[in-house]
Amino acid sequence: MREIEQIYYNDFGVAFHWKKNNVVLKSxxxxxxxxxxxxxxxxxxxxxxxxIDNACRKLDCGTCSQREKCHKFLLKTPLSEIxxxxxxxxxxxxxxxxxxxxFTLEMxxxxxxxxxx
Length: 117
Hints:
- With 117 residues, the chain is an alpha+beta fold.
- Helices cover 36% and strands 32% of the residues.
- The strands form two sheets. The protein has a four-stranded antiparallel beta sheet with strand order 1-2-3-4. Strands 5-6 form a two-stranded antiparallel ribbon.
- Helix 1 packs antiparallel against helix 2.
C-alpha cells in the first residue's frame, strides 16, 4: 500500500495526498467517503464545495411532507456524469469534509509561501 499524507478527516471520510517514492503528490487530493473515492484537483474541490453550499441552501424541509425524514436526494459533483444519493445528515458530513480540506490546504499554502519570512 502506498503511503499518504492526511489533510483532513471526520467521522464520515478522509482527504489526503498520495506519496510516491517519499514525494507527496500535491496536484490532486484523494477524498474518500461513503465507500466512494474522488481524486480531485483544488479547483474541483472548490467546485464541489460550492455545489454543496447551494444544496444546503436549497434544503427546505419545512414545506416537505417528510419533515427531515426523507431517505435520499441527488447531490451533483464536479463530474457531470456522477451524482450521489445522500441524506441530509450525509450532506452535512460531506460539507464538513470539504470545508475542512479546503481550510487545511489554504492554511498550508499560506504557511509555505506567503507566511514565510
